């Protein structure tokens, strides 16, 4: 170490060779000289971020979110200098959300502002741990529904510019216990 305390990685001279030559190696703090991802023991091994990332490198952290909400609507828009951000619910999340049953957003769980001009696709992964009830309204972007292990309890209607289906999905028509009723649906319709 050359005595600088700025914390940056410096090249250092290795004078330990008996032939008198000097070599340069990177001082990365690892005793074996290799560069490895840190794992503090709390992660599932999927994360590449140990919490000290600046978030600008595109890394994602798997957080195993647990979210519950009754009578909620997520209003997705772009304004005040902020761009549109998609909905992402991964297969490890435990999400129990239901739309309001009265008021101007009755039955609507996710509402994308119609002024949003395209953007990244939203991903909703279904699993037996998720219970989503309401309409997912994305008129200008794509929604990907991913099937996972177990039977999903999701009771959703999807309105989107484009819908992608992947994995093991079971599609059906919500019955009379759906919060979306004026009446039970009788068939699924593809509108092009």
Brief overview:
The protein is an all-beta fold and 192 residues long.
Supply the key terms.
two-stranded antiparallel sheet, about 190 residues, 8-stranded parallel sheet, mainly beta
Task: Tell me what the structure shows.
It is a single chain. The chain is an all-beta fold and 192 residues long. The protein has a domain at 64-78 and 87-170. The chain is built from no helices and 10 strands. The strands form 2 sheets. Strands 3, 4, 5, 6, 7, 8, 9 and 10 form an 8-stranded parallel β-sheet that branches. Strands 1-2 form a two-stranded antiparallel ribbon. The model is unreliable at 1-60 (pLDDT under 50).
Content of β-strand = 25-35%
H/E element sequence? EEEEEEEEEE
How many individual helices?
0
Provide the helix percentage: under 10%
Q: Total number of β-strand segments?
A: 10
Mean pLDDT: 67
Q: Low-confidence stretches at least 5 residues in length (pLDDT < 50)?
A: 1-60
Instruction: Tell me the overall shape.
Output: globular
Computed CA radius of gyration, to the nearest angstrom: 25 Å
For the sheet with most strands, the description reads: 8 strands, parallel
Terminal residue distance: 66 Å
What structural category characterises the helix and strand content?
Answer: mainly beta
Outline the secondary-structure elements.
Layout lengths: L10 E4 L8 E4 L39 E5 L3 E3 L11 E2 L4 E5 L9 E5 L9 E4 L5 E16 L8 E12 L26
Parallel strand pairs: 3-6, 4-7, 5-8, 6-9, 7-9, 8-9, 9-10
Antiparallel strand pairs: 1-2
């Amino acid at each position: 170490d050359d005595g600088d305390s700025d914390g940056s990685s410096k090249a250092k001279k290795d004078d330990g060779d008996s032939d008198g030559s000097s070599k340069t190696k990177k001082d990365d703090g690892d005793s074996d000289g290799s560069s490895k991802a840190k794992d503090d023991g709390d992660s599932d091994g999927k994360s590449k971020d140990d919490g000290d990332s600046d978030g600008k490198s595109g890394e994602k952290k798997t957080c195993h979110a647990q979210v519950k909400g009754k009578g909620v609507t997520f209003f997705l828009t772009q304004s005040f200098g902020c761009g549109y951000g998609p909905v992402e619910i991964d297969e490890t999340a435990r999400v129990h959300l239901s739309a309001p049953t009265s008021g101007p957003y009755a039955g609507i769980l996710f509402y994308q502002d119609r002024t949003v001009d395209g953007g990244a696709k939203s991903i909703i992964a279904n699993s037996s741990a998720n219970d989503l009830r309401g309409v997912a309204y994305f008129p200008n972007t794509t929604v990907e529904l991913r099937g996972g292990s177990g039977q999903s309890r999701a009771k959703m209607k999807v309105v989107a510019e484009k819908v992608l289906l992947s994995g093991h999905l079971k599609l059906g028509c919500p019955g009379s216990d759906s919060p979306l009723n004026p009446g039970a649906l009788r068939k699924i319709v593809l509108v092009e």
